[in-house]
Amino acid sequence: MNTIKSIIRSAPLIRHAITPNYLIRPLSTPVTPITKAIEDVTPPAMELDKLYKRVELEMRGIDPAVLLSYSWFCVAAASHLGIEVTKSWAQRKADKERHTLLRCVHIYKKNKVQYEIRTYFRFIHLQRLTGSTCDTFLEYIERNLPEGCALKVTKVECLPLPEHLTPPKENNE
């Protein structure tokens, strides 16, 4: 009997092979029924979902092929979620940033080197989104953002008119 106890304590794989399962199972606890009345429970307050008229995606990167592939991915993900894509375009020319440096630190102003950084842009406009759909879509495309790319999101939210802008109620007298 002592050898069985030492085997049970030492190796869990051997424990299942030697001992029957009913010896290892914990005792079940009795289930007590809920006696509260259903009327006492108040429903949680319903929070309305946000509505967006338009969501604009601006993608920046240093490689135009990667940006094109990523914009195709975003449009395909939007179509799978049933989001309406109104525009998807790119700028014709890249933004160029030039930096001029001297080759030698001390003298020789004639020997300069010029470095150039090109930034490419792509834009996507989405229309008529709910807040939950927008959050799901943006989280998905942000997680799949490739290396060397940046994403800027601009949302245009639909809001009700404030009370001071609504027309006054007419009195029927």
Automatic annotation (TrEMBL):
InterPro entries: Ribosomal_uS10_dom (IPR027486), Ribosomal_uS10_dom_sf (IPR036838), Ribosomal_uS10m (IPR040055). Belongs to the universal ribosomal protein uS10 family. It is found in: Mitochondrion. It comes from Manduca sexta. Residues 56-154 form the Small ribosomal subunit protein uS10 domain. One of its GO terms (cellular component) is mitochondrial small ribosomal subunit. SMART domains: Ribosomal_S10. This is Small ribosomal subunit protein uS10m. Its main location: mitochondrion. Keywords: Mitochondrion, Ribonucleoprotein, Ribosomal protein.
